[in-house]
Each structure stands twice: as structure tokens, then as C-alpha cells.
Specification:
The complex is a heterodimer. Helix content of chain A is about 70%, strand content about 0%. In chain A, helix 4 runs antiparallel to helix 5 and helix 10 crosses helix 12. The N and C termini of chain A lie far apart (about 55 Å). In chain B, helix 1 runs antiparallel to helix 5. By secondary structure, chain B is of the alpha/beta class. Classes of the chains: A mainly alpha, B alpha/beta. At the A-B interface, helix 3 and helix 9 of A face helix 1 of B.
Chain lengths: ~350, ~150
């Protein structure tokens, strides 16, 4: 009897993780908020009033209320399931990213998170490609090839960045490579954020450049160029599936920025914990207050990173052609990540 | 709760799809000027959609020539319900200076129910925004009537 109660409690806790806190609800609210702030900041930089910050929420609910048209040529199952698979994998991905010291899988010890993250980051892109391609629209065809090139271009520097982070932490903890994000973050809470190290600065810069590419925003939005190929892969989508795709796009902002925070700014949770201790709180209350403050700090950092890497860049650049995008990622960004990897390997 | 939220959102996030049905390009330019920093229709949630599948409001400019009639009707059919049809300029309403021409199949209201007419040759951006806001209101009403 006692056993089953404990089991029910654990199950409820994990359900809460998936549906509420680092999972769906958190992703939904913060992701759409980040998109709204991005649109507002871009508008202000163009001297416009801009849409209200809550505009993405209106867009989402409006699309939910529209009719869903499935094209005759499309495979119904793939067309309707693709957006859900993409969103689900992003929500799962968010569970793997620790909020400073708090991690859903913390009790399981070391988990090979970085590699899982690489795979999970691919799934939304693949889902968009599958869903779009199943419609047979020529716009989707062009979008498909461009999306594939974008994914290829971004993947190489991203792997190198993750490798160099794994190497730095591995070196300090006496192992070759550490792939566990939990370990990487808890290492940073003890010995300071990774961005303060010389060897990690190029990697952090590379990661900042990867964020707009991975989320498909300006100037790397050749795959979903709305002015030339009608948002490419999304051209045939309407109603609720389109809303889910828009939501996944928003959640990806949160995922990428919070991944950056976990990789390079993971040490920032320590002063918050110290502050709470200094005020004189202790026990359960202190833990709760620390948690709350850390989540707020994470959201703030995500907003700052979004404005820095997406809004500013959006407001001052035009769209790159797909081969320019590919060249940029495989030369400039890859070179930065490589410099970091070499420096990390020799222990700077 | 969600029903109310969705209804409210319809008035706040109308996406436009623009069809040129043989227009002289004057209205087309004026429609784009509505989205520029000076008038900034995006503050009301308006956005120009690239494909009819994403649109809520169809803006038709031009006198609906015989050549374009079938294309206009096909494009309007692609827009998911609930949708609004807005004519911009005098041409799609009455034919304007092209009235009586053998090349003209308009006015548009002969073929599809038109929700808002924005008159003028070309209408001022203020008039266009006013018409579009009215269309957004009608859109919300249509959603309310749906279920």
C-alpha cells in the first residue's frame, strides 16, 4: 500500500515535470513570450510601435480556431502528426537542460545529455521536412532542400562547440570528455562559469552565431523565406497544425538560449543561492526561493540572449542566400569552434 | 475558456493575403505602405501572409479582369474558414474607369460575398487601416457564429 502511494507520488511528480515546469506549460509561455519580445524589439529598432508583446499568443489561439485543410496529395497521418512529433521532442529536450543546479534527471546521476540533445535538436527539423514534403507543394520542395542544407551547416560547428565544452570539463575532472550536462553545470557552480575561460570565448561566440541559424531567423532564414517561397515547408499548413509549428519555432528560441546558459553561464546560479543564504532563509523555504529566483534569472538571461542574437541581427541584416549561409557556417563559425577545441585540448 | 480566448484572438491577429486582380498597382503600393513604419498596421496584429492557407482576410485589388476571375476565386477557396473578403479601391467594387469594358468580369460581389469595401482611387492608408479593422471585427463575429 505504502509502496503504491510512493509510486503514485513519483509518477505525479514526473507528470508535473513533463506538463508544467520545465516541460510543456513553461515552454509554451516563455517561448511565445520570447517571440513577442523579439517582434517588439525589432519593431522599435525600425521606429515602429510594433505588435503587443502578447501577439504570438493571439496568433497561436487564432490559428487554433481556423479550419485545417489537408491537401489531397498529402498523406494525412504524416501531415497531421509531424508538428506534434516536432513539439514533443522539443519539450523532451527542455527536460534535459538543467535550470542552474535543478535538473529533472538529477537523481539518475550522469546522463549522456549532450549527445541526446544533438539528436533531439534534429527531430523538429526532420518533422518539418517530413510534414512539408508530404504535401507535394513546390514551395515545400524548395524549402526542404534549403532546410536540409541549413541543418547540415549548423550541425558541424554545434558538435565542435559541444565537444570543446566536454573537453574543458573533462580535463578538469580528470577524464577525457564529459558529456553530461548535469556535471557540466555543477562543475560551473563550483569553479565559475565557462565563459570566463579564454579557451571558451570563441566557442561561446560560435554558439551565439548558431542560435539564429538553428532557429531559422534572419539572416539565416533562407529555408522559410516568406517573401520568396511562402514560408517554404509551411506553405500548405493551416489551422492548428500551423499553430503547433509556430509554437515549436518559439520553443526552439527558449531551448537554444537556455542551452547557451547551461553551457557557458551555468555558474550564475551560485550567487543567487548565496544571496538567499545571506538573507537568513534556510531549509525548504530557502530552496523554494532560490529555485524561483533562478528560474527568473534563466528567463531574463534567455530574453537578453534572444534580443542579442536574434532581434538585433534581424533588424540590421538581410537574408543570405543558401550557399552563403553554408559557407559562413563552415568557415567563420566552424573556425571559431575549432580554435576553442584546440585551446581546450591543450588546457587553456 | 478557450472558446472565448480564440474568439478574442481573431480580432487581434488577422493575417492578410493580397490578390491583384488586374490592378493598376496603385492600390498594391498603398496596401504595402500600411505596413511601413509610418502607419505600422502590425501594431494591430496585421501581417502579410505569403500563401492563402495562412490568411484570414483576403484583400482584392483591381477590377477583376476576365483573365484573373477564375484565379481569384480559386485563391479565395484556399483560405480556411472563417475568412473575410475585402475589396480595396473602387475597381473591384464598381469597375471604376474600366466599367463596361469587354475585358472586365467584375464587380467582385457578383461572385463572392464581400465583407468590407474600401472605396477610393486609391484609398488613403488611414482608410485602408479603418477597413481592415472593420474586417477583423467581422472575422470575430464569424468565428462566434461558427459554433
Amino acid at each position: 500500500m505504502l509502496n503504491s502511494i510512493a509510486f503514485a507520488q513519483t509518477a505525479l511528480l514526473y507528470l508535473g515535470y513533463v506538463l508544467i515546469f520545465p516541460g510543456f506549460l513553461f515552454c509554451f509561455v516563455v517561448g511565445l513570450l520570447l517571440t513577442g519580445i523579439d517582434r517588439k524589439v525589432v519593431a522599435r529598432m525600425q521606429r515602429r510601435v510594433g505588435p503587443p508583446v502578447l501577439q504570438p499568443f493571439y496568433d497561436f489561439f487564432k490559428l487554433c480556431g481556423k479550419e485545417t485543410i489537408v491537401p489531397d496529395a498529402a498523406s494525412r497521418t504524416v501531415f497531421l502528426l509531424a508538428p506534434l512529433v516536432g513539439l514533443a521532442s522539443l519539450v523532451v529536450l527542455q527536460l534535459f537542460i538543467p535550470v542552474f543546479k535543478f535538473s529533472v534527471f538529477g537523481s539518475l546521476g550522469e546522463v549522456a545529455d549532450l549527445i541526446v540533445i544533438l539528436y533531439l535538436l534534429l527531430i523538429p527539423a526532420v518533422a518539418v521536412m517530413l510534414g512539408g514534403a508530404s504535401t507535394g507543394s513546390p514551395y515545400a520542395g524548395v524549402g526542404l532542400s534549403r532546410e536540409m542544407v541549413t541543418v547540415l551547416a549548423v550541425e558541424l560547428p554545434l558538435v565542435l562547440v559541444l565537444l570543446s565544452v566536454a573537453r574543458v570539463v573533462g580535463r578538469e575532472t580528470g577524464r577525457a570528455l564529459v558529456f553530461s550536462l548535469n556535471t557540466i553545470v555543477s562543475f560551473q557552480t563550483v569553479s565559475g562559469s565557462l565563459i570566463t575561460r579564454v579557451s571558451m570565448i570563441p566557442a561561446a561566440l560560435a554558439m551565439l552565431m548558431i542560435i539564429p541559424g538553428e532557429t531559422g531567423s534572419h539572416p539565416f532564414d533562407a529555408a522559410e523565406a516568406e517573401t520568396e517561397i511562402c514560408e517554404g515547408l509551411l506553405a500548405e499548413y493551416s489551422g492548428a497544425p500551423l499553430a503547433v509549428f509556430k509554437l515549436s519555432h518559439a520553443v526552439k528560441l527558449l531551448t537554444m538560449t537556455s542551452l547557451f546558459v547551461a553551457l557557458f553561464l551555468g555558474g550564475l546560479g551560485t550567487p543567487i543561492a548565496q544571496l538567499v543564504a545571506a538573507v537568513g532563509l534556510s531549509g525548504e523555504l530557502a530552496a523554494a526561493v532560490t529555485m524561483l529566483l533562478q528560474v527568473l534569472a534563466l528567463v531574463l538571461l534567455c530574453i537578453v540572449l534572444t534580443v542579442l542574437t536574434i532581434s538585433f541581427v534581424h533588424a540590421v541584416t538581410a537574408r543570405l542566400r543558401i550557399e552563403q549561409l553554408f559557407k559562413y557556417y563552415w568557415t567563420v563559425v566552424t573556425a571559431l569552434a575549432l580554435i576553442s577545441l584546440v585551446l581546450a585540448w591543450y588546457g587553456y | 475558456m478557450f472558446k472565448k480566448l480564440i474568439e478574442e484572438s481573431f480580432g487581434k491577429s488577422p493575417w492578410l493575403f493580397h490578390i491583384n486582380a488586374g490592378s493598376c498597382n496603385g492600390c498594391d503600393i498603398e496596401l504595402v505602405s500600411v505596413l511601413t513604419p509610418r502607419f505600422d498596421a502590425e501594431r494591430l496584429g496585421f501581417k502579410l501572409a505569403g500563401t492563402p492557407r495562412h490568411a484570414d482576410i483576403v484583400v482584392v485589388t483591381g477590377p477583376v479582369t476576365r483573365q484573373s476571375l477564375q484565379r481569384v476565386l480559386t485563391a479565395i477557396e484556399q483560405v480556411p474558414e472563417p475568412r473575410c473578403i475585402v475589396t480595396m479601391g473602387s475597381c473591384p467594387q464598381s469597375g471604376n474607369v474600366f466599367r463596361g469594358s469587354y475585358a472586365i468580369a467584375g464587380p467582385l460581389s457578383k461572385y463572392v460575398p464581400v465583407d468590407v469595401d474600401i472605396a477610393g482611387c486609391t484609398p488613403k492608408p488611414e482608410a485602408v487601416i479603418d477597413g481592415l479593422v472593420k474586417a477583423a471585427e467581422i472575422l470575430r463575429e464569424k468565428r462566434r457564429a461558427m459554433k
